[in-house]
TrEMBL record:
Domain of life: Eukaryota
SUPFAM superfamilies linked: SET domain
Transmembrane segments: none
Domain SET: 14-229
Family matches, as Pfam families: SET
Family matches, as InterPro entries: SET_dom, SET_dom_sf, SETD3_SETD6_MTase, SETD4_SET
UniProt protein name: SET domain-containing protein
Amino acid sequence: MEIYDELLRWAEDRGIELHGVAPRPILGRGMGMVATKPIKANERILLVPTSALRSLDTVRAKVKTRLPKDTKAHAILAADLALDNPTSKNYRPWNAVVPSRESISSSLPLAWDTRLHPYLPKPAQALLRAQQSKFARDWAAVQQSSLDTTITRQDFQHAWLLVNTRTFYHETARTARLPKDDRMVLQPVADLFNHAADDGCEVAFSPASFTITADRAYTAGDEVCICYGSHPNDFLLAEYGFVLSRNRWDEACLDDAVVPELSPAQRGLLEARGFLGGYVLDAGTVCYRTQVALRLLCCASSSSSVREWEALVDEGEDGGEGLQGEVDGLLVNILKKYRGVVQATITELETLEVGEAGQREMLRTRWHQIGVLIDRTIERLGS
Ligand SMILES: C[S@@+](CC[C@H](N)C(=O)[O-])C[C@H]1O[C@@H](n2cnc3c(N)ncnc32)[C@H](O)[C@@H]1O
Protein backbone atom coordinates (compact mmCIF):
# COMPACT_ATOMS: atom_id res chain seq x y z
CA MET A 1 0.00 0.00 0.00
CA GLU A 2 3.02 2.26 0.09
CA ILE A 3 2.38 3.45 -3.45
CA TYR A 4 -1.14 4.50 -2.44
CA ASP A 5 0.15 6.39 0.61
CA GLU A 6 2.52 8.18 -1.71
CA LEU A 7 -0.34 8.88 -4.14
CA LEU A 8 -2.39 10.42 -1.34
CA ARG A 9 0.50 12.62 -0.18
CA TRP A 10 1.06 13.69 -3.79
CA ALA A 11 -2.69 14.36 -4.17
CA GLU A 12 -2.78 16.46 -1.01
CA ASP A 13 0.07 18.59 -2.33
CA ARG A 14 -2.09 19.30 -5.40
CA GLY A 15 -5.11 20.35 -3.38
CA ILE A 16 -7.05 17.09 -3.86
CA GLU A 17 -9.26 16.53 -0.80
CA LEU A 18 -10.52 13.12 0.31
CA HIS A 19 -13.05 12.97 3.15
CA GLY A 20 -13.64 9.55 4.67
CA VAL A 21 -12.57 7.44 1.67
CA ALA A 22 -9.27 5.78 0.77
CA PRO A 23 -8.05 3.44 -1.99
CA ARG A 24 -8.14 -0.29 -1.14
CA PRO A 25 -7.83 -3.48 -3.19
CA ILE A 26 -11.27 -4.91 -4.05
CA LEU A 27 -11.54 -8.55 -5.07
CA GLY A 28 -12.03 -8.82 -8.85
CA ARG A 29 -11.98 -5.05 -9.44
CA GLY A 30 -8.36 -3.98 -8.93
CA MET A 31 -8.46 -0.98 -6.62
CA GLY A 32 -11.54 0.84 -5.43
CA MET A 33 -12.50 3.51 -2.91
CA VAL A 34 -13.62 2.38 0.53
CA ALA A 35 -15.22 4.35 3.37
CA THR A 36 -12.75 4.75 6.25
CA LYS A 37 -15.45 6.16 8.58
CA PRO A 38 -19.24 6.47 8.49
CA ILE A 39 -20.27 8.81 5.66
CA LYS A 40 -23.60 10.64 5.58
CA ALA A 41 -25.75 11.08 2.48
CA ASN A 42 -24.84 14.30 0.62
CA GLU A 43 -21.41 14.54 2.29
CA ARG A 44 -18.69 15.61 -0.12
CA ILE A 45 -16.10 12.85 -0.25
CA LEU A 46 -13.71 14.10 -2.93
CA LEU A 47 -12.67 17.38 -4.47
CA VAL A 48 -10.20 17.60 -7.33
CA PRO A 49 -9.23 21.17 -8.23
CA THR A 50 -9.16 21.86 -11.96
CA SER A 51 -5.43 22.56 -11.64
CA ALA A 52 -4.89 18.86 -10.68
CA LEU A 53 -6.59 17.45 -13.79
CA ARG A 54 -4.50 15.81 -16.46
CA SER A 55 -5.89 17.36 -19.62
CA LEU A 56 -4.98 18.87 -22.98
CA ASP A 57 -3.73 21.85 -20.94
CA THR A 58 -1.14 19.74 -19.10
CA VAL A 59 0.07 17.76 -22.14
CA ARG A 60 3.69 18.65 -22.76
CA ALA A 61 4.16 21.09 -25.64
CA LYS A 62 6.63 18.77 -27.36
CA VAL A 63 3.89 16.11 -27.58
CA LYS A 64 1.11 18.42 -28.72
CA THR A 65 3.09 20.26 -31.36
CA ARG A 66 4.57 17.14 -32.95
CA LEU A 67 1.25 15.42 -33.55
CA PRO A 68 -0.81 16.25 -36.67
CA LYS A 69 -3.12 19.28 -36.13
CA ASP A 70 -6.39 17.31 -36.25
CA THR A 71 -5.30 14.67 -33.68
CA LYS A 72 -8.10 13.76 -31.24
CA ALA A 73 -7.85 14.49 -27.50
CA HIS A 74 -7.88 10.74 -26.78
CA ALA A 75 -4.74 10.25 -28.88
CA ILE A 76 -2.97 13.33 -27.50
CA LEU A 77 -3.54 12.25 -23.89
CA ALA A 78 -2.51 8.67 -24.70
CA ALA A 79 0.68 9.82 -26.45
CA ASP A 80 1.50 12.04 -23.45
CA LEU A 81 1.04 9.07 -21.08
CA ALA A 82 2.98 6.66 -23.28
CA LEU A 83 5.90 9.06 -23.57
CA ASP A 84 5.88 9.98 -19.90
CA ASN A 85 8.89 8.71 -18.08
CA PRO A 86 7.40 6.47 -15.34
CA THR A 87 9.57 8.27 -12.81
CA SER A 88 8.78 11.81 -14.02
CA LYS A 89 8.34 14.07 -11.02
CA ASN A 90 4.96 15.43 -12.13
CA TYR A 91 3.03 12.17 -12.27
CA ARG A 92 5.21 9.41 -10.80
CA PRO A 93 2.80 8.50 -7.94
CA TRP A 94 -0.14 8.34 -10.37
CA ASN A 95 1.83 6.41 -13.02
CA ALA A 96 2.72 3.91 -10.28
CA VAL A 97 -0.90 3.01 -9.46
CA VAL A 98 -2.58 2.77 -12.87
CA PRO A 99 -3.24 -0.81 -14.03
CA SER A 100 -0.30 -2.55 -15.66
CA ARG A 101 -0.15 -3.44 -19.32
CA GLU A 102 -0.85 -7.10 -18.41
CA SER A 103 -3.97 -6.28 -16.43
CA ILE A 104 -5.31 -3.91 -19.10
CA SER A 105 -4.72 -6.39 -21.92
CA SER A 106 -6.26 -9.25 -19.95
CA SER A 107 -9.47 -7.39 -19.31
CA LEU A 108 -10.14 -5.24 -22.39
CA PRO A 109 -11.36 -7.00 -25.55
CA LEU A 110 -9.45 -4.58 -27.82
CA ALA A 111 -6.24 -6.16 -26.54
CA TRP A 112 -7.49 -9.79 -26.59
CA ASP A 113 -6.47 -12.43 -29.09
CA THR A 114 -8.61 -11.45 -32.07
CA ARG A 115 -9.83 -15.06 -32.41
CA LEU A 116 -11.95 -14.41 -29.30
CA HIS A 117 -13.69 -11.39 -30.83
CA PRO A 118 -16.36 -13.37 -32.72
CA TYR A 119 -17.49 -14.76 -29.35
CA LEU A 120 -18.45 -11.30 -28.08
CA PRO A 121 -22.17 -10.56 -28.23
CA LYS A 122 -23.15 -8.42 -31.21
CA PRO A 123 -23.42 -5.01 -29.40
CA ALA A 124 -19.97 -5.54 -27.86
CA GLN A 125 -18.58 -6.44 -31.30
CA ALA A 126 -20.01 -3.21 -32.74
CA LEU A 127 -18.37 -1.15 -29.97
CA LEU A 128 -15.13 -3.03 -30.47
CA ARG A 129 -15.15 -2.28 -34.22
CA ALA A 130 -15.61 1.43 -33.43
CA GLN A 131 -12.70 1.29 -30.95
CA GLN A 132 -10.52 -0.53 -33.50
CA SER A 133 -11.09 2.15 -36.09
CA LYS A 134 -10.46 5.01 -33.60
CA PHE A 135 -7.34 3.27 -32.34
CA ALA A 136 -6.05 2.75 -35.91
CA ARG A 137 -6.66 6.45 -36.65
CA ASP A 138 -4.88 7.54 -33.44
CA TRP A 139 -1.94 5.17 -33.89
CA ALA A 140 -1.56 6.44 -37.48
CA ALA A 141 -1.40 10.01 -36.08
CA VAL A 142 1.42 8.99 -33.74
CA GLN A 143 3.28 7.26 -36.55
CA GLN A 144 2.94 10.31 -38.81
CA SER A 145 4.21 12.61 -36.07
CA SER A 146 7.76 13.59 -35.32
CA LEU A 147 7.43 12.13 -31.81
CA ASP A 148 9.95 9.78 -30.25
CA THR A 149 9.76 6.70 -32.47
CA THR A 150 10.66 4.28 -29.68
CA ILE A 151 7.01 4.27 -28.63
CA THR A 152 5.61 0.87 -29.65
CA ARG A 153 2.10 -0.01 -30.69
CA GLN A 154 1.74 -1.93 -27.40
CA ASP A 155 2.90 1.08 -25.33
CA PHE A 156 0.44 3.29 -27.13
CA GLN A 157 -2.39 0.78 -26.85
CA HIS A 158 -1.86 0.49 -23.08
CA ALA A 159 -1.96 4.28 -22.70
CA TRP A 160 -4.93 4.55 -25.10
CA LEU A 161 -6.93 2.02 -23.07
CA LEU A 162 -6.02 3.77 -19.81
CA VAL A 163 -7.50 6.94 -21.30
CA ASN A 164 -10.54 4.98 -22.53
CA THR A 165 -11.30 3.56 -19.09
CA ARG A 166 -10.25 6.43 -16.80
CA THR A 167 -11.33 9.75 -18.32
CA PHE A 168 -14.19 11.96 -17.21
CA TYR A 169 -16.27 14.33 -19.29
CA HIS A 170 -15.17 17.92 -18.61
CA GLU A 171 -16.26 21.13 -20.24
CA THR A 172 -14.62 24.53 -20.00
CA ALA A 173 -15.21 27.67 -22.07
CA ARG A 174 -12.28 26.53 -24.24
CA THR A 175 -13.18 22.84 -24.63
CA ALA A 176 -16.87 23.63 -25.28
CA ARG A 177 -15.75 24.49 -28.81
CA LEU A 178 -14.33 20.99 -29.33
CA PRO A 179 -16.37 17.95 -30.41
CA LYS A 180 -17.97 16.24 -27.38
CA ASP A 181 -15.61 13.28 -27.32
CA ASP A 182 -12.62 15.65 -27.14
CA ARG A 183 -13.83 17.10 -23.83
CA MET A 184 -12.12 14.53 -21.67
CA VAL A 185 -9.73 14.72 -18.74
CA LEU A 186 -7.89 12.32 -16.49
CA GLN A 187 -8.51 12.79 -12.79
CA PRO A 188 -5.88 11.33 -10.52
CA VAL A 189 -7.54 9.70 -7.46
CA ALA A 190 -11.11 10.18 -8.73
CA ASP A 191 -10.25 7.51 -11.28
CA LEU A 192 -10.02 4.94 -8.49
CA PHE A 193 -13.80 4.85 -8.03
CA ASN A 194 -15.40 1.72 -9.47
CA HIS A 195 -18.78 1.57 -11.21
CA ALA A 196 -21.87 1.04 -9.06
CA ALA A 197 -24.56 -1.53 -9.71
CA ASP A 198 -26.98 1.05 -8.23
CA ASP A 199 -26.97 4.85 -8.62
CA GLY A 200 -23.56 5.61 -7.11
CA CYS A 201 -22.22 8.90 -5.81
CA GLU A 202 -22.85 12.12 -7.64
CA VAL A 203 -20.07 13.47 -9.84
CA ALA A 204 -20.19 17.18 -10.70
CA PHE A 205 -17.82 19.74 -12.10
CA SER A 206 -17.53 23.51 -12.14
CA PRO A 207 -14.80 25.74 -13.60
CA ALA A 208 -12.97 25.38 -10.24
CA SER A 209 -13.19 21.67 -9.47
CA PHE A 210 -14.64 18.20 -9.77
CA THR A 211 -16.53 16.94 -6.74
CA ILE A 212 -17.94 13.57 -5.72
CA THR A 213 -20.79 13.57 -3.19
CA ALA A 214 -22.21 10.58 -1.28
CA ASP A 215 -25.57 9.45 -2.69
CA ARG A 216 -26.48 7.70 0.57
CA ALA A 217 -25.02 6.80 3.96
CA TYR A 218 -22.03 4.42 4.00
CA THR A 219 -20.52 2.58 6.94
CA ALA A 220 -16.77 2.19 7.41
CA GLY A 221 -15.49 -0.61 5.15
CA ASP A 222 -18.20 -0.19 2.44
CA GLU A 223 -16.98 0.25 -1.10
CA VAL A 224 -18.05 3.67 -2.40
CA CYS A 225 -18.76 3.80 -6.13
CA ILE A 226 -19.82 6.25 -8.81
CA CYS A 227 -21.94 5.47 -11.86
CA TYR A 228 -20.23 5.39 -15.26
CA GLY A 229 -23.65 5.63 -16.96
CA SER A 230 -26.76 3.47 -17.45
CA HIS A 231 -24.88 0.86 -19.44
CA PRO A 232 -25.83 -2.72 -20.30
CA ASN A 233 -23.19 -5.39 -19.69
CA ASP A 234 -22.15 -5.64 -23.37
CA PHE A 235 -21.12 -1.97 -23.16
CA LEU A 236 -19.29 -2.45 -19.85
CA LEU A 237 -17.48 -5.47 -21.27
CA ALA A 238 -16.30 -3.74 -24.45
CA GLU A 239 -15.46 -0.37 -22.89
CA TYR A 240 -14.34 -1.28 -19.36
CA GLY A 241 -13.55 -5.00 -19.41
CA PHE A 242 -16.06 -6.24 -16.82
CA VAL A 243 -19.71 -7.23 -16.44
CA LEU A 244 -21.95 -6.70 -13.41
CA SER A 245 -23.76 -9.68 -11.93
CA ARG A 246 -26.73 -7.44 -11.10
CA ASN A 247 -27.33 -4.72 -13.67
CA ARG A 248 -30.72 -3.10 -13.94
CA TRP A 249 -29.75 -1.63 -17.32
CA ASP A 250 -28.78 -4.96 -18.81
CA GLU A 251 -30.32 -6.15 -22.06
CA ALA A 252 -29.82 -8.92 -24.62
CA CYS A 253 -29.54 -8.28 -28.34
CA LEU A 254 -31.98 -10.36 -30.40
CA ASP A 255 -30.75 -9.53 -33.91
CA ASP A 256 -29.28 -12.98 -34.44
CA ALA A 257 -32.56 -14.51 -33.28
CA VAL A 258 -34.98 -12.38 -35.28
CA VAL A 259 -33.20 -11.31 -38.48
CA PRO A 260 -32.67 -14.88 -39.81
CA GLU A 261 -36.46 -15.39 -39.55
CA LEU A 262 -37.15 -12.52 -41.96
CA SER A 263 -37.47 -12.99 -45.72
CA PRO A 264 -35.51 -10.63 -48.01
CA ALA A 265 -38.79 -8.78 -48.75
CA GLN A 266 -39.55 -8.37 -45.03
CA ARG A 267 -36.02 -7.12 -44.39
CA GLY A 268 -36.54 -4.59 -47.19
CA LEU A 269 -39.83 -3.37 -45.66
CA LEU A 270 -38.22 -3.00 -42.24
CA GLU A 271 -35.11 -1.31 -43.62
CA ALA A 272 -37.20 1.19 -45.58
CA ARG A 273 -38.83 2.27 -42.31
CA GLY A 274 -35.62 2.21 -40.22
CA PHE A 275 -36.67 -0.87 -38.24
CA LEU A 276 -34.16 -3.49 -39.40
CA GLY A 277 -32.05 -4.72 -36.44
CA GLY A 278 -31.34 -3.20 -33.04
CA TYR A 279 -33.74 -5.68 -31.39
CA VAL A 280 -33.33 -6.07 -27.61
CA LEU A 281 -35.07 -7.34 -24.53
CA ASP A 282 -34.39 -6.52 -20.90
CA ALA A 283 -35.56 -8.08 -17.64
CA GLY A 284 -39.14 -6.89 -18.11
CA THR A 285 -39.75 -5.77 -21.68
CA VAL A 286 -39.21 -6.59 -25.33
CA CYS A 287 -38.36 -3.42 -27.26
CA TYR A 288 -40.74 -1.75 -29.70
CA ARG A 289 -38.44 -2.43 -32.67
CA THR A 290 -38.69 -6.15 -31.97
CA GLN A 291 -42.48 -5.88 -31.74
CA VAL A 292 -42.55 -4.19 -35.14
CA ALA A 293 -40.43 -6.94 -36.73
CA LEU A 294 -42.46 -9.72 -35.11
CA ARG A 295 -45.74 -8.21 -36.28
CA LEU A 296 -44.44 -8.21 -39.81
CA LEU A 297 -43.54 -11.88 -39.40
CA CYS A 298 -47.06 -12.54 -38.14
CA CYS A 299 -48.47 -11.12 -41.39
CA ALA A 300 -47.02 -14.06 -43.28
CA SER A 301 -48.66 -16.66 -41.07
CA SER A 302 -51.92 -15.18 -39.83
CA SER A 303 -55.05 -13.24 -40.56
CA SER A 304 -53.32 -9.87 -40.16
CA SER A 305 -52.13 -8.16 -43.29
CA VAL A 306 -49.19 -6.02 -44.29
CA ARG A 307 -51.70 -3.14 -44.36
CA GLU A 308 -52.33 -3.67 -40.63
CA TRP A 309 -48.58 -3.73 -40.05
CA GLU A 310 -48.25 -0.43 -41.88
CA ALA A 311 -51.01 0.96 -39.65
CA LEU A 312 -48.95 -0.05 -36.64
CA VAL A 313 -45.77 1.57 -37.92
CA ASP A 314 -47.36 4.69 -39.39
CA GLU A 315 -50.26 5.32 -37.03
CA GLY A 316 -49.47 3.31 -33.88
CA GLU A 317 -52.52 0.99 -34.36
CA ASP A 318 -51.59 -2.03 -32.26
CA GLY A 319 -54.10 -4.54 -33.63
CA GLY A 320 -55.49 -5.43 -30.20
CA GLU A 321 -54.86 -8.24 -27.71
CA GLY A 322 -55.43 -11.07 -30.18
CA LEU A 323 -52.54 -9.98 -32.34
CA GLN A 324 -50.34 -9.38 -29.28
CA GLY A 325 -50.95 -12.99 -28.21
CA GLU A 326 -49.85 -14.18 -31.65
CA VAL A 327 -46.73 -11.97 -31.52
CA ASP A 328 -45.81 -13.24 -28.03
CA GLY A 329 -46.25 -16.86 -29.12
CA LEU A 330 -44.01 -16.32 -32.14
CA LEU A 331 -41.38 -14.61 -29.98
CA VAL A 332 -41.37 -17.49 -27.48
CA ASN A 333 -40.69 -19.94 -30.34
CA ILE A 334 -37.92 -17.74 -31.76
CA LEU A 335 -36.36 -17.33 -28.31
CA LYS A 336 -36.45 -21.08 -27.63
CA LYS A 337 -34.55 -21.64 -30.86
CA TYR A 338 -32.04 -18.86 -30.07
CA ARG A 339 -31.55 -20.20 -26.53
CA GLY A 340 -30.02 -23.27 -28.22
CA VAL A 341 -27.55 -21.00 -30.07
CA VAL A 342 -26.63 -19.26 -26.79
CA GLN A 343 -26.07 -22.61 -25.08
CA ALA A 344 -23.94 -23.85 -27.99
CA THR A 345 -21.76 -20.72 -27.67
CA ILE A 346 -21.27 -21.38 -23.95
CA THR A 347 -20.36 -25.02 -24.66
CA GLU A 348 -17.94 -24.02 -27.42
CA LEU A 349 -16.23 -21.56 -25.06
CA GLU A 350 -15.73 -24.38 -22.55
CA THR A 351 -13.50 -26.32 -24.95
CA LEU A 352 -11.86 -23.37 -26.73
CA GLU A 353 -8.15 -22.88 -26.05
CA VAL A 354 -7.72 -19.43 -27.60
CA GLY A 355 -6.85 -16.42 -25.39
CA GLU A 356 -6.67 -16.46 -21.60
CA ALA A 357 -8.83 -18.62 -19.33
CA GLY A 358 -10.16 -15.48 -17.58
CA GLN A 359 -11.23 -13.94 -20.91
CA ARG A 360 -13.11 -17.10 -21.92
CA GLU A 361 -14.69 -17.19 -18.47
CA MET A 362 -15.81 -13.57 -18.91
CA LEU A 363 -17.43 -14.48 -22.24
CA ARG A 364 -19.15 -17.54 -20.74
CA THR A 365 -20.47 -15.42 -17.89
CA ARG A 366 -21.82 -12.89 -20.37
CA TRP A 367 -23.55 -15.52 -22.52
CA HIS A 368 -24.97 -17.12 -19.41
CA GLN A 369 -26.49 -13.74 -18.42
CA ILE A 370 -28.01 -13.45 -21.89
CA GLY A 371 -29.43 -16.97 -21.49
CA VAL A 372 -31.03 -15.97 -18.19
CA LEU A 373 -32.66 -12.86 -19.73
CA ILE A 374 -34.06 -15.03 -22.53
CA ASP A 375 -35.30 -17.76 -20.15
CA ARG A 376 -37.11 -15.17 -18.04
CA THR A 377 -38.84 -13.73 -21.10
CA ILE A 378 -39.87 -17.20 -22.31
CA GLU A 379 -41.28 -17.89 -18.86
CA ARG A 380 -43.09 -14.54 -18.67
CA LEU A 381 -44.62 -14.66 -22.16
CA GLY A 382 -45.15 -18.40 -22.35
CA SER A 383 -47.27 -18.72 -19.22
C1 LIG B 1 -11.81 4.16 -13.53
S1 LIG B 1 -11.08 2.63 -13.22
C2 LIG B 1 -11.53 2.30 -11.57
C3 LIG B 1 -10.35 1.89 -10.69
C4 LIG B 1 -9.73 0.56 -11.02
N1 LIG B 1 -10.46 -0.51 -10.37
C5 LIG B 1 -8.26 0.48 -10.62
O1 LIG B 1 -7.83 -0.53 -10.07
O2 LIG B 1 -7.54 1.42 -10.90
C6 LIG B 1 -12.13 1.62 -14.23
C7 LIG B 1 -11.75 0.16 -14.24
O3 LIG B 1 -12.03 -0.42 -12.98
C8 LIG B 1 -12.60 -1.72 -13.12
N2 LIG B 1 -13.99 -1.67 -12.61
C9 LIG B 1 -14.74 -0.58 -12.36
N3 LIG B 1 -15.93 -0.90 -11.84
C10 LIG B 1 -15.96 -2.23 -11.75
C11 LIG B 1 -16.94 -3.18 -11.30
N4 LIG B 1 -18.13 -2.80 -10.81
N5 LIG B 1 -16.63 -4.49 -11.36
C12 LIG B 1 -15.43 -4.90 -11.85
N6 LIG B 1 -14.46 -4.06 -12.30
C13 LIG B 1 -14.72 -2.74 -12.23
C14 LIG B 1 -12.54 -2.03 -14.60
O4 LIG B 1 -11.33 -2.69 -14.85
C15 LIG B 1 -12.54 -0.65 -15.24
O5 LIG B 1 -11.97 -0.64 -16.52
